[in-house]
Design a protein that fits this description.
- With 382 residues, the chain is mostly beta strands.
- The chain is 12% helix and 39% strand.
- The protein is built from 7 helices and 27 strands.
- A hairpin with a 3-residue loop joins strand 3 and strand 4.
- The chain starts with a strand and ends with a helix.
């Protein structure tokens, strides 16, 4: 397995150049905006070349190498050291990892620990002893879930959840949460000002509330962006809801279309006559969506089944069962991997991986960047 990254790289989350190695912020365009998929590097080469799990926040990336001597490597901003990727000493034997701007959470077979990234402390800010899974060496739950609750990005780090929810997976943004229950039901709570809770209104919810529009359609995966949410059905259909200001839902965005039209008009001669403009305007009136308060089925062309999905602050990336990666939404930092800095309100396949005969197996979005795991096509088919 190999990991590639693209998008925001000001702190060396994707690759490191001389200025970043000195621990300095880089404002050079080629350092900050990586628009073409670039293979990740690490002091522990195995962290990005073998079986690996990756998590990302706005300024950092955490890579967990999974073997008998598993460990975590951090890349990106650090208040005390250079930006180069480096192993986390206390992570030996780690089975799962979660990273936010403030905390690094490590799950072991017998405990969970959260470390404050802004401080150099000898003990974790929070910890919990857990019972190992009876059939595996790993923990019983997947972060950010923890026994009886979940780990939040900010204090209080541990927050309880009702056992009646039977939580299977949890996706967290800074202001809202999407929970997948064991039955395939979806629950949301938190801020609802952009329709990101999927209840048909803009109200907030203090406690988990079932998304009734998805009732009867079992879901297999959920993810959250800054102000939008997505889920995958058991059949591989993708449902989206919330804010669509940058096209992050894959639905027509008025603001994005206007911006693209302005860019296009600046590059072309204004040779169209008023009569021709009038005829063009009569062709059809497209319906634009700013906020989608109910889950909507997103059509990806050509038709395909979605295997997994991840969300950045204002962009979305999805992997199909055939190993293709599609991206859409805000692209100002190259986080769509289309080898440009354009945004899009339509899912577009990242052709780089197909051209390199690579099969995408997983995708993880940071706030302004994207990371994809790939294998060679012959390996994927064997």
């Amino acid at each position: 397995m190999r990991w590639f990254g693209f998008g925001f790289n000001a702190f060396g989350q994707i690759y490191v150049r001389e200025k970043l190695l000195k621990g300095e912020y880089s404002d050079a365009a080629e350092d900050v905006k990586v628009s073409s998929p670039t293979e990740l590097c690490s002091q522990l080469d195995c962290c990005v070349r073998n079986e690996c799990q990756t998590q990302a926040s706005w300024s950092r990336r955490a890579s967990l190498h999974l073997n008998s001597d598993s460990c975590v490597c951090l890349a990106g901003f650090d208040s005390s050291e250079s930006c180069n990727a480096r192993p986390v000493t206390r992570s030996r034997g780690c089975k799962d990892v979660l990273i936010s701007e403030s905390f690094l959470t490590l799950a072991f077979s017998d405990r969970i620990e959260s470390w404050d990234l802004q401080k150099q402390e000898e003990t974790p800010s929070w910890s919990m002893e857990i019972k190992p899974h009876p059939e595996s060496s790993g923990p019983c739950v997947t972060l950010p879930l923890a026994p009886g609750g979940y780990i939040a990005p900010l204090p209080p780090l541990y927050r309880p959840l009702s056992p009646h929810l039977r939580a299977k997976r949890l996706a967290l943004s800074s202001e809202h949460a999407v929970l997948l229950g064991a039955s395939g039901a979806v629950y949301t709570w938190g801020l609802g000002s952009h329709g990101q809770l999927g209840h048909g209104d803009l109200a907030s919810e203090e406690k988990p509330r079932i998304v009734e529009a998805l009732w009867g359609m079992p879901m297999s995966h959920v993810a959250t962006g800054g102000w939008h949410s997505v889920s995958i059905s058991d059949g591989g259909d993708l449902y989206v809801w919330g804010w669509n200001e940058s096209g992050q839902l894959g639905l027509p965005s008025r603001g994005l279309r206007k911006a693209l039209q302005q860019q296009s008009s600046q590059q072309e001669d204004a040779s169209t006559s008023p009569a021709e403009e009038s005829k063009e305007g009569e062709k059809h009136e497209e319906v634009f969506i700013s906020i989608q308060a109910f889950p909507a089925l997103l059509d990806v062309t050509p038709p395909c089944e979605i295997r997994t999905v991840s969300c950045g602050c204002r962009h979305t990336a999805a992997v199909t069962t055939k190993g293709d990666l599609y991206t859409w939404g805000w692209g100002d930092y190259g986080q769509l991997g289309q080898q440009n800095l354009l945004s899009s309100d339509e899912p577009q396949r990242v052709e780089f991986f197909r051209e390199q005969q690579m099969h995408v197996t997983d995708v993880v979005c940071g706030a302004w960047n994207t990371f994809a795991a790939v294998v060679e096509e012959e390996v994927a088919c064997s």
